């Protein structure tokens, strides 16, 4: 268990991360009014990567990566940055941003399942109930969207698969000894995500450049510097401070903040169905993450 100072620091970082990532989701939809998914992601990653390396150098950190860490670094970058950035941006094109956030932030539930399949943990009744609630959240969001949004199946898939890949990246991140790498760890993951995104954009992007609005441009720069740069570095710091399942608690509240933000900023729907999905998601994640203490089990 982390000591008290590490626990206090982690709680402060969790509060920051929840606010930064939760309010970020409706901003995706605003930025994508002016940019394609590919152009948007390339701009965000270039700005965020450059900022992280600049700050790391100013702090006197080394940018060198030990040879034995390149393989896990590539894997972590693929799951945490490359796939996540493309799929989450795609999801908000097809379904409301708050609902996309609920699907993407099923990460802790996926991580619990990965722990059972690959790390030898037992699938007990509590986790089975958690999986049932998680499936209930997906059904509540999926069924109405299939009638309302023509591309809802693609949006739902993008959101769920983003959460699954983030869980894989978290497993790689947590199980690797990064030899004291600081901000350079985040910076390198972002830099390594650029080539596959640029390669994919060469095939899929229209590359029709229109002069963006100031709102779209400033929103994109904000997303690069705050949620991507600071938020991702904060997440990696939390994973380093706490056990992975405990660190994943940060994502429980993020979809709630995202859905409320989507309602306030974009007037996205937030009725009984969405609230029910949020409730199912919170219950599922709580069951998956909170383990009863020995005292509680014997009382």
Quote the beta fraction: under 5%
Determine the structural class based on helices, strands and strand pairing.
mainly alpha
How many individual domains? 1
Order of helices and strands: HHHHHHHHHHHHHH
Q: What is the β-strand count? A: 0
What is the makeup of the main sheet? none
Mean pLDDT: 80
Distance from N terminus to C terminus (CA atoms, Å) equals 23 Å
* Integer-rounded radius of gyration: 19 Å
The low-confidence parts are 294-299
Helix content: over 70%
Shape: globular
Q: What's the helix count?
A: 14
Assembly type of the shown chains?
single chain
Describe the structure.
With 299 residues, the protein is mostly helical. It has one domain (4-291). Helix content is 79%, strand content 0%. The protein is built from 14 helices and no strands. It has helices spanning 4-22, 25-31, 37-58, 70-94, 97-104, 107-118, 125-148, 152-175, 183-204, 214-241, 244-247, 250-266, 272-289, 294-298. The radius of gyration is 19 Å and the shape is globular. The two termini are 23 Å apart. The relative contact order is 0.21.
List key phrases describing it.
mainly alpha; 79% helix; 14 helices; 299 residues; single chain; 0% strand
Question: Quick summary of this structure?
Answer:
By secondary structure, this protein is mainly α. It has one domain (about 5-290).
């Amino acid at each position: 268990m982390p000591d008290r100072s590490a626990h206090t620091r982690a709680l402060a970082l969790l509060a920051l991360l929840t606010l930064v990532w939760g309010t970020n989701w409706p901003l995706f939809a605003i930025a994508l009014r002016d940019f394609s998914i590919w152009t948007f992601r390339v701009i965000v990653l270039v700005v965020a990567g450059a900022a992280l390396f600049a700050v790391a150098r100013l702090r006197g950190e080394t940018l060198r990566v030990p040879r034995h860490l390149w393989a896990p670094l590539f894997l972590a970058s693929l799951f945490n940055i490359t796939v996540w950035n493309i799929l989450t941006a795609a999801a908000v094109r097809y379904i409301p941003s708050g609902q996309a956030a609920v699907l993407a932030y099923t990460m802790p539930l996926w991580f619990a399942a990965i722990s059972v399949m690959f790390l030898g943990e037992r699938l007990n009744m509590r986790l089975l109930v958690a999986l049932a609630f998680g499936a209930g959240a997906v059904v509540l969001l999926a069924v109405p969207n299939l009638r309302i949004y023509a591309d809802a199946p693609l949006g739902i898939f993008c959101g769920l698969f983003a959460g699954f890949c983030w869980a894989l990246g978290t497993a790689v991140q947590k199980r690797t000894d990064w030899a004291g790498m600081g901000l350079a760890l985040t910076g390198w993951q972002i830099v390594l995500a650029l080539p596959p995104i640029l390669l994919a954009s060469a095939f899929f992007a229209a590359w029709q450049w229109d002069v963006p609005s100031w709102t779209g441009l400033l929103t994109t720069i904000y997303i690069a510097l705050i949620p991507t740069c600071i938020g991702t570095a904060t997440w990696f710091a939390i994973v380093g401070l706490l056990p992975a399942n405990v660190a994943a608690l940060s994502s429980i509240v993020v979809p709630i903040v995202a859905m409320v933000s989507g309602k306030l900023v974009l007037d996205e729907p937030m009725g009984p169905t969405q609230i029910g999905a949020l409730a199912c998601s919170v219950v599922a994640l709580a069951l998956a993450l909170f383990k009863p203490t020995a005292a509680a089990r014997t009382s």
